[in-house]
Protein backbone atom coordinates (compact mmCIF):
# COMPACT_ATOMS: atom_id res chain seq x y z
CA UNK A 1 0.00 0.00 0.00
CA UNK A 2 2.85 2.40 0.86
CA UNK A 3 4.58 1.65 -2.43
CA UNK A 4 1.33 2.21 -4.32
CA UNK A 5 0.79 5.57 -2.59
CA UNK A 6 4.34 6.64 -3.43
CA UNK A 7 3.85 5.58 -7.05
CA UNK A 8 0.61 7.56 -7.32
CA UNK A 9 2.30 10.67 -5.88
CA UNK A 10 5.15 10.34 -8.36
CA UNK A 11 2.77 9.98 -11.30
CA UNK A 12 0.71 12.94 -10.10
CA UNK A 13 3.73 15.21 -9.88
CA UNK A 14 5.13 14.04 -13.20
CA UNK A 15 1.86 15.06 -14.81
CA UNK A 16 1.55 18.37 -12.98
CA UNK A 17 5.09 19.58 -13.49
CA UNK A 18 5.22 18.55 -17.14
CA UNK A 19 2.44 20.99 -17.94
CA UNK A 20 3.56 24.46 -18.94
CA UNK A 21 0.93 26.84 -17.61
CA UNK A 22 1.44 30.54 -18.38
CA UNK A 23 0.48 33.27 -15.91
CA UNK A 24 -2.41 34.35 -18.11
CA UNK A 25 -5.42 32.88 -16.36
CA UNK A 26 -7.59 35.85 -17.17
CA UNK A 27 -5.80 37.03 -20.30
CA UNK A 28 -7.31 37.27 -23.72
CA UNK A 29 -6.23 34.64 -26.21
CA UNK A 30 -4.88 37.37 -28.47
CA UNK A 31 -1.16 38.13 -28.25
CA UNK A 32 -1.89 41.83 -27.84
CA UNK A 33 -3.88 41.37 -24.65
CA UNK A 34 -1.89 38.55 -23.04
CA UNK A 35 -0.66 39.24 -19.52
CA UNK A 36 2.97 39.50 -18.48
CA UNK A 37 4.23 39.09 -14.91
CA UNK A 38 6.13 42.04 -13.50
CA UNK A 39 7.71 41.72 -10.06
CA UNK A 40 6.83 44.84 -8.08
CA UNK A 41 8.37 43.88 -4.75
CA UNK A 42 10.24 40.85 -3.43
CA UNK A 43 11.38 40.06 0.11
CA UNK A 44 11.84 36.98 2.27
CA UNK A 45 8.25 37.30 3.49
CA UNK A 46 6.34 38.49 0.44
CA UNK A 47 6.51 38.56 -3.35
CA UNK A 48 4.15 40.91 -5.19
CA UNK A 49 3.62 40.38 -8.90
CA UNK A 50 1.54 42.59 -11.17
CA UNK A 51 -0.01 40.94 -14.21
CA UNK A 52 0.08 43.60 -16.90
CA UNK A 53 -1.27 43.52 -20.48
CA UNK A 54 1.66 42.96 -22.83
CA UNK A 55 1.18 46.29 -24.60
CA UNK A 56 1.60 48.21 -21.30
CA UNK A 57 4.54 46.29 -19.80
CA UNK A 58 7.27 48.73 -20.82
CA UNK A 59 5.22 51.69 -19.64
CA UNK A 60 4.51 50.03 -16.30
CA UNK A 61 8.15 49.07 -15.74
CA UNK A 62 9.16 52.64 -16.47
CA UNK A 63 6.65 53.92 -13.91
CA UNK A 64 8.04 51.51 -11.30
CA UNK A 65 11.37 53.34 -11.51
CA UNK A 66 9.66 56.18 -9.66
CA UNK A 67 9.98 55.31 -5.92
CA UNK A 68 6.73 57.10 -5.11
CA UNK A 69 4.72 55.18 -7.72
CA UNK A 70 6.35 51.90 -6.72
CA UNK A 71 5.48 52.43 -3.05
CA UNK A 72 1.90 53.29 -4.00
CA UNK A 73 1.67 50.00 -5.88
CA UNK A 74 3.13 48.06 -2.94
CA UNK A 75 0.73 49.75 -0.51
CA UNK A 76 -2.20 48.93 -2.77
CA UNK A 77 -1.25 45.27 -3.13
CA UNK A 78 0.08 44.52 0.35
CA UNK A 79 -1.95 42.98 3.14
CA UNK A 80 -1.62 42.86 6.92
CA UNK A 81 -2.13 39.36 8.32
CA UNK A 82 -1.64 39.36 12.07
CA UNK A 83 -4.70 37.53 13.37
CA UNK A 84 -3.92 33.82 13.67
CA UNK A 85 -6.10 31.16 15.29
CA UNK A 86 -4.85 27.60 15.72
CA UNK A 87 -2.35 28.13 12.94
CA UNK A 88 -5.00 29.22 10.43
CA UNK A 89 -5.27 32.63 8.83
CA UNK A 90 -8.63 34.11 9.84
CA UNK A 91 -8.13 37.77 8.97
CA UNK A 92 -6.98 38.87 5.53
CA UNK A 93 -6.23 42.27 4.09
CA UNK A 94 -5.57 42.10 0.36
CA UNK A 95 -6.12 44.33 -2.68
CA UNK A 96 -9.70 45.01 -3.69
CA UNK A 97 -10.87 42.84 -6.54
CA UNK A 98 -12.16 39.40 -7.44
CA UNK A 99 -10.38 36.48 -5.80
CA UNK A 100 -9.39 34.18 -8.64
CA UNK A 101 -7.72 31.66 -6.34
CA UNK A 102 -6.18 31.42 -2.90
CA UNK A 103 -4.12 28.48 -1.69
CA UNK A 104 -2.35 27.59 1.58
CA UNK A 105 0.41 25.17 2.55
CA UNK A 106 0.39 24.25 6.26
CA UNK A 107 2.48 21.91 8.39
CA UNK A 108 -0.54 19.60 8.54
CA UNK A 109 -0.44 19.35 4.73
CA UNK A 110 3.20 18.24 4.74
CA UNK A 111 2.38 15.76 7.52
CA UNK A 112 -0.55 14.29 5.57
CA UNK A 113 1.44 13.91 2.35
CA UNK A 114 4.45 12.34 4.05
CA UNK A 115 2.54 9.99 6.33
CA UNK A 116 0.38 8.76 3.45
CA UNK A 117 3.54 7.04 2.23
CA UNK A 118 5.07 6.14 5.62
CA UNK A 119 3.30 5.75 8.97
CA UNK A 120 1.34 7.75 11.57
CA UNK A 121 3.53 10.20 13.52
CA UNK A 122 6.38 9.61 11.08
CA UNK A 123 6.85 13.33 10.44
CA UNK A 124 7.38 14.26 14.08
CA UNK A 125 9.81 11.37 14.55
CA UNK A 126 11.70 12.42 11.43
CA UNK A 127 12.05 16.02 12.63
CA UNK A 128 13.06 14.88 16.11
CA UNK A 129 15.77 12.56 14.79
CA UNK A 130 17.20 14.68 11.96
CA UNK A 131 16.02 18.27 12.41
CA UNK A 132 13.82 20.31 10.02
CA UNK A 133 16.44 20.90 7.31
CA UNK A 134 17.46 17.27 6.82
CA UNK A 135 13.83 16.21 7.27
CA UNK A 136 12.78 18.18 4.18
CA UNK A 137 15.36 16.41 2.01
CA UNK A 138 14.30 13.02 3.36
CA UNK A 139 10.60 13.77 2.78
CA UNK A 140 11.23 14.68 -0.86
CA UNK A 141 13.39 11.57 -1.35
CA UNK A 142 10.92 9.25 0.39
CA UNK A 143 8.04 10.47 -1.76
CA UNK A 144 10.11 10.09 -4.92
CA UNK A 145 9.54 13.70 -5.95
CA UNK A 146 11.81 15.17 -8.58
CA UNK A 147 12.24 18.56 -6.93
CA UNK A 148 11.12 20.70 -3.97
CA UNK A 149 8.33 22.01 -6.21
CA UNK A 150 6.87 18.52 -6.10
CA UNK A 151 6.03 18.60 -2.39
CA UNK A 152 3.53 21.45 -2.61
CA UNK A 153 2.43 20.11 -5.99
CA UNK A 154 1.50 16.81 -4.32
CA UNK A 155 -1.39 18.62 -2.61
CA UNK A 156 -3.12 18.62 -5.99
CA UNK A 157 -4.67 22.05 -5.35
CA UNK A 158 -1.77 24.35 -6.26
CA UNK A 159 -1.55 25.19 -9.97
CA UNK A 160 1.91 24.86 -11.49
CA UNK A 161 1.84 28.58 -12.30
CA UNK A 162 1.63 29.41 -8.58
CA UNK A 163 4.39 26.99 -7.58
CA UNK A 164 6.98 27.97 -10.15
CA UNK A 165 6.75 31.69 -9.47
CA UNK A 166 9.41 31.05 -6.80
CA UNK A 167 12.63 29.01 -7.24
CA UNK A 168 13.17 25.60 -5.67
CA UNK A 169 15.49 26.98 -2.98
CA UNK A 170 12.77 29.34 -1.81
CA UNK A 171 10.35 26.45 -1.42
CA UNK A 172 12.94 24.32 0.39
CA UNK A 173 13.52 27.11 2.90
CA UNK A 174 9.77 27.61 3.28
CA UNK A 175 9.28 23.92 4.14
CA UNK A 176 12.06 24.17 6.73
CA UNK A 177 10.47 27.28 8.26
CA UNK A 178 7.08 25.54 8.42
CA UNK A 179 8.53 22.43 10.07
CA UNK A 180 10.45 24.47 12.64
CA UNK A 181 7.30 26.56 13.20
CA UNK A 182 8.94 29.90 12.45
CA UNK A 183 6.07 30.54 10.00
CA UNK A 184 2.53 29.18 10.01
CA UNK A 185 2.09 28.64 6.29
CA UNK A 186 2.74 29.73 2.73
CA UNK A 187 -0.13 31.46 0.97
CA UNK A 188 -0.73 32.50 -2.62
CA UNK A 189 -3.49 34.95 -3.55
CA UNK A 190 -4.44 35.58 -7.19
CA UNK A 191 -6.70 38.63 -7.46
CA UNK A 192 -8.34 40.17 -10.51
CA UNK A 193 -8.41 43.96 -10.71
CA UNK A 194 -12.00 44.96 -11.46
CA UNK A 195 -11.13 48.59 -12.14
CA UNK A 196 -10.57 49.75 -15.76
CA UNK A 197 -6.84 50.17 -15.16
CA UNK A 198 -3.81 47.93 -15.24
CA UNK A 199 -2.44 45.76 -13.65
CA UNK A 200 -5.17 43.37 -14.74
CA UNK A 201 -4.46 41.11 -11.76
CA UNK A 202 -2.13 40.60 -8.82
CA UNK A 203 -0.31 37.50 -7.66
CA UNK A 204 0.88 37.67 -4.06
CA UNK A 205 2.95 34.90 -2.47
CA UNK A 206 3.55 35.14 1.28
CA UNK A 207 5.20 33.40 4.19
CA UNK A 208 2.84 33.97 7.14
Folded structure, characterized:
The chain has helices at 2-17, 57-64, 67-77, 107-115, 122-142, 149-153, 160-163, 168-179; strands spanning 35-42, 46-53, 84-85, 88-89, 98-106, 185-192, 201-207. With 208 residues, it is of the alpha+beta class. It has one domain (2-207). The strands form 2 sheets. Strands 1-2-7-6-5 form a 5-stranded antiparallel sheet. A hairpin with a 3-residue loop joins strand 1 (35-42) and strand 2. It is elongated, with a radius of gyration of 19 Å.
Q: Which ranges are low-confidence, i.e. pLDDT below 50, for 5 or more consecutive residues?
A: 14-32, 80-92
Helix % is 40-55%
Total count of domains: 1
Q: Count of DSSP helices?
A: 8
Reported for the largest beta sheet, the result is: 5 strands, antiparallel
Strand numbers in spatial order across the main sheet: 1-2-7-6-5
| Ends apart, CA distance between termini | 35 Å
Rg computed from alpha carbons, rounded to a whole number of angstroms: 19 Å
Average pLDDT figure: 84
